[in-house]
Structure formats: C-alpha cells, structure tokens
Amino acid sequence: MSNVTQGAVLGKDDPVLRTDGLKKSFGGLTATDDVSFEVERGTITGLIGPNGAGKSTLFNLVSGFYEPDEGSVSVNGTDVTDHEPHEIVGEGMVRTFQTPRKPEGMSVREAMLVGPQGQTGESILPLFTSSSTVRREERQSLERAEEMLERFEIADLATQSATDLSGGQMKLVELARAMMSDPDLLLLDEPVAGVNPVLAQKLAGFIEELHAEGQSFLIIEHDMSFIMRLADPIIVLNQGSVLVEGPPDAVRSDDRVVDAYLGGPA
Ligand SMILES: Nc1ncnc2c1ncn2[C@@H]1O[C@H](COP(=O)(O)OP(=O)(O)OP(=O)(O)O)[C@@H](O)[C@H]1O
Ligand SMILES: [Mg+2]
Q1: pLDDT tens-digit profile of 26-73?
Q2: pTM (two decimals)
Q3: Over the range 4-22, which residues count as b (16 or more CB within 10 Å of their CB) and which as e?
Q4: 186: burial class by Cβ within 10 Å (0-12, 13-18, 19+)?
Q5: Domains of the chain in sequence order
Q6: C-beta separation of 113 from 142 below 8 A
C-alpha cells in the first residue's frame, strides 16, 4: 500500500503555515491553481516539482510579494492574505530567494542588520536617535548578528563587502539574515542551487541542527539527495497544483511523480 497521499495532507495538528485554494495567473498562464497545503510545526517540509511547476510563485504568494487572485494564507493561525512582506515577518515567517540580490554598498555585518531581503519594512534601524530604547534594540540586533555570523561560520566575512561574496557565501549570509528575527518558519528557495558539494553538506548540517532545536522549514530544492535526506514530508507540485504528499521514500518511487518529472501524464 502506498503511503503517498494524492493532493496535500490537511488538518494537521499544529500547522505553522496553511494555504487554502491559492490561485495566481499571469495573463493566460495559471502559475498556481487551487493550492491548499499545510506545514506542520517542527517539520522540514520539502516542496519539489519540475521547472515552472509554480514553487517560487507559491513562496511569493505566502510571503506577501504577490497578491493571490483567489485563496488565503495563514501563519500561526493568523490570516495574512494580502499582508505586506514585513508584516508577515512579524507573524513569524521569513523567506529567502532563489536568486538573492547582493546588498549594494554594505558590509556583510550591515546586510545582517538591515535584515532579510525585501522583508524589513520602512525603518528597521533608525540611524541617529537619542532614544535609549532604540539604542538598546540596536545593541540587541548587533549581538544577534554576531551570534548568527558565528553560528553559520561566516564571522570572518563580517567586514567584507557583500558585493564581493561568492554565490555559496551569499547563500550562507541569506540563511543568517533570515534567522535574524528568530522566525517560527523559514522558507528557503533552492538553498543549495549553484553551491559546491562541500558547502551544500555544510548547509544541510546547519539546517539539521536548527531543526533539532525545533525550527520549522519549508524548502524548495531540485537537488534530490539533499531534499530527500532532510525533508519529511515532501509535497510535489506539478503544473501549478499539488500532485502528492508523503514521506521521501514513497514520493521518490511514486509513478505519478516520476511521470511529472519526465513530462508525462500526471
Ligand atoms: N512575475 C511573473 N510574470 C509572469 N510569469 C511568471 C511570473 N512568475 C512566474 N511566472 C510563470 O509562472 C510559472 C511558474 O513559475 P515559478 O517560478 O513559480 O516556477 P518554479 O516551480 O519555481 O520553477 P523553477 O524550479 O524553475 O524555479 C512559470 O511558467 C513562470 O514563467
Ligand atoms: Mg523557482
């Protein structure tokens, strides 16, 4: 008997993220169509599917970068549909980008202090102020930044210009920045794409450590050995819809998934 479920498993015990019927079209192209799924708290949930399946669009919808045509999103039980990205960070969910933009004219430490790309709102750090509260918050942010730089073993990059980072270093900085606000759920869009195998192992190790401490993840990744090792369950998206959800071994051997990747009938 297969333990892969057609569609997504809903009604989980404690979902940190839930979507209901998310739909997004671009002109005549439906990128996501009636997507409903949940991420159970404490899991590393994988989101896989062929190129163009709608994975990144789904991240853009749940993180407030795109407005859905239909459907809703909730984080920790709070409806965040149509909220701004920084408001969604405030509810406890942070995302990274498939192609991160290098912060211009900033050191890595400064990039840490402005927080995750596109999700920090207007004024995260007022630069000149006499308010002791703000000064205390600045000090706390600085401490957190140093802690994250140490944790992800990039403290030696702190004063380096962010524009000079390699692709792999940038992925580590992205993870560290995303962790600045201590989110309940981290969304990672292809964390090891274009990363050398040694660094990919290192990233997998960091994700496993965070997970062991209770961190929840939703991870998009094409590297099958990486995602199959880390994630359970895995949700498969195909042509804008959830095809199946299940544990990695069952998903890997499911004919519908194999067909989707080969471009055959789902
Ligand atoms: N802003 C946009 N404008 C027009 N079309 C878009 C836009 N964003 C995504 N699409 C289209 O929506 C579909 C889904 O794209 P999406 O980037 O979500 O796929 P994906 O599953 O992340 O693919 P990949 O694995 O290649 O990253 C594609 O056909 C894409 O061209
Ligand atoms: Mg994508």
Answers
A1: 999 999 999 999 999 999 999 999 999 999 999 999 999 999 999 999
A2: 0.94
A3: beeebeeebeebbbbbbeb
A4: buried
A5: 5-262 (3.40.50.300)
A6: yes
Residue 218's closest CA among 253, 250, 183?
183
Q: Which residues surround ligand 2, an ion (CB under 5 A)?
A: 55-56, 98
User: C-alpha distances in angstroms, 228 versus 44, 197, 245?
Assistant: 11, 16, 13
Distance from Cα 55 to the centre of ligand 2, integer Å: 5
For a ligand 1 pocket test, name from 22, 56, 67, 190 the mutation site with the most ligand atoms within 8 angstroms of its C-beta.
56
Nearest alpha carbon, ligand 1 atom 9: 57
24 CA: nearest ligand 1 atom: 12
Contacts of the segment 161-169: beta carbons below 8 A, 24+ positions apart: 161/105, 161/106, 161/107, 162/102, 162/103, 162/104, 162/106, 162/107, 162/108, 162/110, 162/111, 163/102, 163/103, 163/104, 163/105, 165/102, 165/108, 167/194, 167/195, 168/194, 168/195, 168/196, 168/199
Interval 178-203 mean pLDDT: 95
CA of 32 to the centre of ligand 1 (A): 9
CA of 52 to the centre of ligand 1 (A): 5
Buried b (16+ CB within 10 A) or exposed e, 145-167: beebbeebebeebbeebbeebee
